[in-house]
Amino acid sequence: MRSGHAARITAILLALVFAVPAFASDPPPWQERLQSVLDRPEYRHAHWGLLVVDAKTGDVVYEHQADKLFAPASVTKLFSVGAAWAAFGPDHRFITPVFRRGDVRDAGALEGDLVLRATGDLTLHGRGSESGEISFRNGDHTYANGNLTAQLTDENPLAGLDELARQVAAAGIRRINGDVLIDARLFEPASSTGSGPGRVTPMLVNDNLLDVLVTAAAEAGQPATVSTRPETALFTIDSFVETGPAGARPELSLRWSGSGRAVVRGKVPAGHRPIVRVLEWEDPEFVARGLFIEALQRAGIRVDASPLAASSAALPEVDWYATAPRVAALESPTFAEEAKLILKVSHNLHASTLPLLLAASRDRRTLSEGLAIQGEILEQLGVERGTISFGGGAGGDRADYTTPRATVQLLSQLASREDGERFRAALPILGVDGTLSSIGAKDSPARGRVFAKTGTLFWDNRLNGRPLLTSKALAGYIDAASGRQLAFACFVNLTHLSSGEETAREGQALGEIAEILQQGL
């Protein structure tokens, strides 16, 4: 009796198994192509995480280890920019005011101090165009010391200070008998994560960098030309750079030597494109004060205080600003433009500043307070806060971990907002601009149809004398060939490299995955 019953059950189960259509067990061609990338020999020690959803319906299209934690590298910036986008709004503008502390006497003499209060404008019109957009190069100058592709934008990095000085003059001030002060107390000092400038401060001029541009002579043996930006008398340049044989590898070293003295040495090959290198100035507030004094002088204002000496006056109490006479104010471009700069070029310093700007918006001052506020906002946006960990706003902190699912949750929620298209437009575009400008073939069908943030993080494997790729990441949106709009996140963690330049291999692999998804879905 029991054996007959068991036989009937077995027959039914076999019938059900053989009734399943063949395509249910055979993966579609796009999935086979995707798996072939994940299974490449170079990734035998690596970990992959991937989630793809329909951005409109939320239906999961494909997932692989979507709930595991991965180091996101600069995909972290999606979370810091996304939270700030929700908090401030894309049309928010930061206002940098200048106040006078004292009366203006006859002939326009200010018997007192001029105070510039830093309030969070990250570019201070140093990249602003007449249309209100923030200019950028695909190779940003903040990364110049690690590559040969960095370029400078055309805009004057001192344009904002010059505009403030013009307004001060228009307010009737012709002489300042007191001091010039920079108030950068908006939040407590912090460190940026990732490469580039390391000091996070609300007072930024040219990203607090001295740009050094080295141009080779036409022939080997001749001295190269060395110029700097911004143009200022605050720094002196001690340079000796030779032009070497064409095709040789550039060799340049830069360092500060004493107060305001930059030493540049090395050799550059004949015929090479101009090379950008940068030096971060050691005291941002001191340099900003000196640059502002020079701007005031260019505006025809006589300033008794020296730009080369430290300020002798104390900053006013914070309550003083509520009733203090304002003599100038600079309005920043929209936050959407700032977000575009951060996301397109993966600007570590500005992204690291965002949690602190969130803190300041709620009268808080520390990075920890800002990250806690960021966590609250992300939770309101539908991100599972308990599944993520961040120690900074840029990526690169050892505490930075997220899941593909949390990343796609954020992307999906941002896409559903009325300003979702503006956020998507701020992301790098495959084969077009930003950190995705060189990814994929020029004739790739996915060109211009993938909008995504990149991420790269590697550490030196000193045991073997080669790098370990901690993370290569890509997350954003895809306009699929079928017409579907997809949100996706893809991470590969922990794979060996032969050199730091080999991260381009993983960049192309992620670009290939994006192309597979764009064409297959």
Please sum up the structure shown.
With 521 residues, the protein is α+β, with helices and mostly antiparallel strands. 27% of the residues lie in helices and 25% in strands.
How would you describe this protein?
Helix content is 27%, strand content 25%. With 521 residues, the chain is α+β, with helices and mostly antiparallel strands. The chain folds into two domains: 29-89 and 336-520, DD-peptidase/beta-lactamase superfamily (Beta-lactamase), CATH 3.40.710; 95-333, no CATH class. The longest helix is centred in the N-terminal third of the chain and has 18 residues, at 2-19.
CATH class of the largest domain: Alpha Beta
Indicate the proportion of strand residues. Answer: 15-25%
Radius of gyration of CA atoms, rounded to a whole number: 27 Å
Query: What is the CATH superfamily label of the largest domain?
Result: DD-peptidase/beta-lactamase superfamily
Cα distance spanning the termini = 52 Å
Shape: globular
Helix content: 25-40%
N-to-C SSE series?
A: HHEEHEEHEEEEEEEEEEHEEHHHHHEEEH
Uncertain segments? 1-7, 9-24
In total, the number of strands is 19
Helix-strand makeup class: alpha+beta
Output the CATH topology of the largest domain.
Beta-lactamase
CATH architecture of the largest domain: 3-Layer(aba) Sandwich
Counted by DSSP, the helix tally is 11
Mean pLDDT: 92
> What number of structural domains do the residues give?
2
Major β-sheet annotation: 6 strands, mixed
